[in-house]
Amino acid sequence: MSEDNTSSATERRPDWAAFIIAVFLFAVAGVMAWDALHLKTIAQYDRIGPATAPQMVAFGLFCLGIWTAFEAWRGDFPERDRQEVAPVIWIVAGLAGQMLLLRVAGFSIATGILFALTARGFGKRKLWISLPFGIVLSFVVWAIFSQLLQLTLPPGPLEHLFF
């Protein structure tokens, strides 16, 4: 009698989140396969061309999608931890802030804000320390890429102050 209770208690239902991941894998595999079929081929004698690698990756993603769907149906995925939403919001806010401020404030300030908000998302509570540190670190990166390597990164008021 106790065996019936334990078997029904340990029986797991299908993992619907894993099914969503499997559908995403199928979609990416389909887009890659469609794109690979539409690549222009050069007249050649080999069967291996520019579409071979994307076709193989699409096949691999399709196989992973089948495997994920099978494991989701069986319910074999381990239980996931509770998701923390606040760190994700801090990091997404930092990315959005950098994209919005990159042309206006320049690379150093925008990336410094990204650094500070990402550090906040990972648990660093003192923004008044991480913001100036991020701006200084980003300015050093900008100087190396812009001045030494001659690559174009968007300058802002801080960069115009020194260069």
Automatic annotation (TrEMBL):
It comes from the Bacteria. The keyword Transmembrane applies. The chain crosses the membrane at residues 16-37, 49-70, 90-115, 127-145. Pfam families: TctB. Residues 20-154 form the DUF1468 domain. Keywords: Membrane, Transmembrane, Transmembrane helix. This is Tripartite tricarboxylate transporter TctB family protein. It comes from Rhizobium changzhiense.
